[in-house]
Amino acid sequence: MTIFINMKEVSKIVKGNFLYAWLLPIGGIFFMVFGIYQLLNPFEMDNGGLPNWMLGIFFFPFGVIAFIHALDFRYLIIGKDQLEIKSLFRKRIIRKSEVMGYGVEDYEGRYVSGERIRIRTKKNSYKFHTSQFSSIEEVKQFVKGKPVQKDAFQKERISNTLAYLFLFVFMLIPFTYEKCKAPTDTVVEAIGIPVKVKVDLKILEETKDELRFELKEYKDFIFTVGKNKIPENMSTTDKQLIVFIMNQEQVAALSDKANPKTISVDNIDFLE
Description:
By secondary structure, the protein is of the alpha+beta class. It contains six helices and 14 strands. It has helices spanning about 5-10, 20-40, 50-70, 135-140, 155-180, 250-255; strands at about 10-15, 75-80, 80-85, 90-95, 100-110, 115-120, 125-130, 190-195, 200-205, 210-215, 220-225, 240-245, 260-265, 265-270.
């Protein structure tokens, strides 16, 4: 006589919750795209003075890990003698006979809290939590009768501590980067001085090829610039201008207020 067994009667399906099953992979994609965008121009600086490559090497791997991890735990099929983890990438089966022990604990985070369980087998360790699946009660029933391990989450606590240390070091990178990059004695090689005609800039003499003027910010200095290096309507404009001095020796001379001299200006342009 042949006996047919309805699998729905002996197996339970535990689905991943909405946050973990959908929002986490979407967030992972967002982080990956942002990381790639930063790596397209790796040596540009963001508003906080951090090179783009530093942001890229943080956000892109983090996004990949979040995306793959979410798709690696879609739902569970729990039977009497085995637990199967359904994934888009691989097939994993936990046989009850191979379970060496488990641990259960409540966790309280700043944004997420709940309950988690870690199952240890002869070869691997598996963790399930209530922010990942709709319930872990079925998992707890599956391992019921196996030894309870009090130190089941000890390695995780150590890894979390190391992760916090890594994050702290990562946050210090911008400061150490600037400190290591900048020389001890900072040398200014070029400057741009924003000015307005008749307010900050006074024209002293104008010839066919050259313009001589004074700047309010640098009294006693005389500045010269070629007529071909200035805007055509500079003497009548009410827009803000910027005076560029690109020569390092000329820039250094501006600091010697006790011995003012004539300063050569490279060019003057509108300040956009």
